[in-house]
Amino acid sequence: MMRFLVHICIIFTALAFVFAGCTRAPHYNDRLIEADRMLHANMRDSALSLLDSISPDELVSEGDKAYYALLSTEANYKCYRPITSDDTINQAINYYECHSQEHENLTKSYLYKGAVIDVLSASDTAFRADSAMIYYKRAEVNAIKNKDDFNQGYANLRMGKLYSNHSALDGRDIEKLENALICFRNADDSSYQMICMKELGAMYRSKNTNDAEKFLTQAIDIAILEQDTSSLIGCLHDLAYAYFMRGNENKQWYKKAYELLARIKSIKQDELDYKIYTTSACVYAKLGMPDSASLFLKQAESVNQAIVETSNYLEAKSHVALARGDSLNFWKISHLCDRMTFAALNDPDIVNIMNAEIDFDRDYNNMIERNRHKSNLITASVVAAVIALLLLLALLMYHRSHRYDRLVAELKDQSQNQLNDLMGLQGNISEMKIQDERLKSFISSHMGMMREMIEACYHEPNNRIAENMKRIVKFQDSNKSNWVKLYDYIDMEHNNIMTSTQQNFPQLDDRDLLLLALTSLGFSYIQTAIIMGYSNATSVSVIKQRLAKKMGINESLNDYIKRFNPEKNSE
């Protein structure tokens, strides 16, 4: 069981490493990374110049090509370069949808795909504004999923402006921008907080001047803090226009608007937006200065000739006509302006945009519900499988435990039988030991008698009985087997000295082994000489030395024998 769990852990660990290797983000071209950093730092022109300097030959991998497509679309859009196709951003989307682990780039790809469609829909009927809403919603969902506050805010900002550009009247534009402001605050991005506040102020100026003033004042403070002159001028103009629209209640608001416009003029700026000149014309006309107002209209025309067809320009022109007392021209221009405003408020695209968001939210919620249902089914299946596995394991353990019990019982029986056999064997061994001791005692006593008889024969040289005794004990081939039987006794007394010597020194003959045996039994030189058939007892010492040399040992034969009987040595 433990081995099975270890194997499972190893498999899951290996899969985790494989997954980590597969989801690792690629290493992009260093110049592309630098261009991305510039875009994040709001260095748009520098980023665009760097991207223009990159040759297509430098981009080897598909990842670099997709990254370049995304960054170039972002830079061109933010630098107001003309956009004529969505092919470039499509290349980024196709790549990042297959590499969804790069969630931030996928989110940005959706955002700028929506922005490109939004731009192209104004001039190309092949592109529809409601398609832009779909891509903004995809970006929002992807950002929420990956807890990307900034891009979630940017998606809401783009949706809010899309609603605003198509004249949404139900407050959807304001709702999106307020969501965007919350996201940018969470992302701690003050620049985009200022953009949201500016847009909210512009939207509130015709609905609630107090809210417009609140948001625009906050935006002005951020613009001053960040020394963003362009944004500061835009916020001051929007606030001035908000004051102008409230001037019908009290002409003091016209004066406030005049003060803000004077503040804008005091800021050194090479060229102002035409809307500032049209607002200035409106304010100066309301304050009874039609000549100055006409001068502002001419300045607006010099900045952008196309403004003569816009509602802002017509509104300013109508106020100038009224200030000059030309009521007929005032009503004619006002009527034309109202028609343009009415046409803008009845933008047919707004319904498609609203329906696109509604359909997307419905489909997304249905998908979430299906995934939740599927997840619940998978969870229930896994739980059921785990329970079944646990029951199976419990059953296996139950059977195994019973099998173990049977095995333990059998082992106990076998152990008891073996214990009984062992006790019987111990009894037999004890009896054998007693018999061995008796045998040893018997042989020792007879060997002692034999040594005494041999010793007596040596001292009675002329006695016929002694001579016969010498012939009997003398070693001969006929009685060799008797001596060999005695070797077993010597092995018992001297730790197998005879067997070991025969195995280790096969060059020894029978007489050599007999000499070793007699010496082990403690026979004297005289006793050994009689048995071996030597005439002189002193020759035994020389023969023992020769035997030690023949064995190749560096010690005497007696020392060799002592090594086989350490107990007697210690005694």
Structural descriptors:
single chain; 571 residues; Serine Threonine Protein Phosphatase 5, Tetratricopeptide repeat; 78% helix; rod-shaped
In short:
The chain has 571 residues and is mostly helical.
Question: How would the blueprint of this fold be written?
Answer:
Elements: H1 2-22, H2 30-40, H3 44-52, H4 62-78, H5 87-98, H6 103-120, H7 129-145, H8 149-165, H9 172-186, H10 190-204, H11 209-225, H12 229-245, H13 252-266, H14 274-286, H15 290-303, H16 311-323, H17 327-345, H18 349-459, H19 464-473, H20 480-493, H21 497-504, H22 510-520, H23 525-532, H24 539-551, H25 557-562, H26 566-570
Helix pairs in contact: 2-3, 2-4, 3-4, 4-5, 4-6, 5-6, 6-7, 6-8, 7-8, 7-18, 8-9, 8-10, 9-10, 10-11, 10-12, 11-12, 12-13, 12-14, 13-14, 14-15, 14-16, 15-16, 16-17, 18-19, 18-23, 20-22
